[in-house]
Design a protein that fits this description.
Length: about 240
């Protein structure tokens, strides 16, 4: 997957041995990667199973990458103590956690994964990953309203970054953000005396909502997964 290292480096850290000692283990063929003996310093991944002389040093791990349509009225939390939590609409045998949030009265795309490092890279505002939304407001959109969104507005003492926005019809618009201020779109609309009636996230980076309906989920296909990992790696590497 995404997070790789040299086998020798792994053995040095895991067994607390010298580089020379790790090299000797590899050359002797007693180190197995996914059940197969290796005798060279190959690149390994966090999903590989690594063992040495019968001792499992790293268990094989399966990473899950899931797109979920969070319905309106559901809280973005896996805490069973919270009413209307995600678990009321999403059941999965393995533990996964959500990437980013949507407030209770917003709906649309959530990503869920057990890949913690990737989750952190996508969630961090430092990397300016794109998130796209469709929004309906309570009255007719005028050009000044769109200009305010595009150029940035002061919210809680901080000016929002310029965004991509275009009008869809008399009361609806599409907006793409690269930052994640709390309830940002609602606050940007409120600052211009508009109220959000519906708010739906339709894209996170290269992952789109597509045909999913409220409460439905799907596993990302290989192309989507590699695109997501590639974008997160590239942007975090340029930070």
């Amino acid at each position: 997957m995404l997070y790789r290292s040299k086998l020798q480096v792994f053995l040095v850290k895991r067994l607390n041995i010298s580089n020379k000692g790790a090299q000797q283990l590899i050359l002797s063929g007693v180190v197995l990667v996914n059940g197969e003996s290796v005798d060279e310093n190959i690149v390994i991944q966090t999903s590989d199973e690594i063992s040495c002389r019968g001792e499992v040093l790293q268990k094989k791990k399966t990473f899950y990458y899931i797109a979920l349509y969070k319905p309106r009225g559901i809280e973005t939390t896996l805490n069973k103590e919270v009413e209307d939590n995600l678990l009321t609409v999403f059941q999965f045998d393995e533990y996964v956690y959500y990437v980013g949030r949507l407030d209770k009265y917003s709906e649309g795309l959530l990503l869920l994964t057990n890949d913690g490092k990737l989750s952190n890279k996508i969630s961090s505002p430092r990397f300016e990953h794109e998130k796209e939304y469709e929004v309906e407001v309570d009255k007719t959109i005028v050009p000044a309203f769109l200009e305010g969104l595009k150029n940035g507005l002061f919210i809680k003492g901080r000016k929002t970054k310029p965004v991509l926005v275009h009008q869809m019809n008399e009361t609806c618009f599409n907006i793409t953000l690269t930052e994640g201020m709390n309830r940002q779109i609602r606050r940007m609309c409120s600052a211009q005396a508009y109220e959000v009636k519906t708010l739906k996230r339709i894209r996170i980076m290269n992952i789109v909502l597509n045909e999913l309906k409220p409460g439905e989920y799907r596993f990302l296909n290989e192309e989507e997964k590699q695109g997501l990992i590639g974008q997160a790696t590239k942007q975090s590497g340029n930070s």
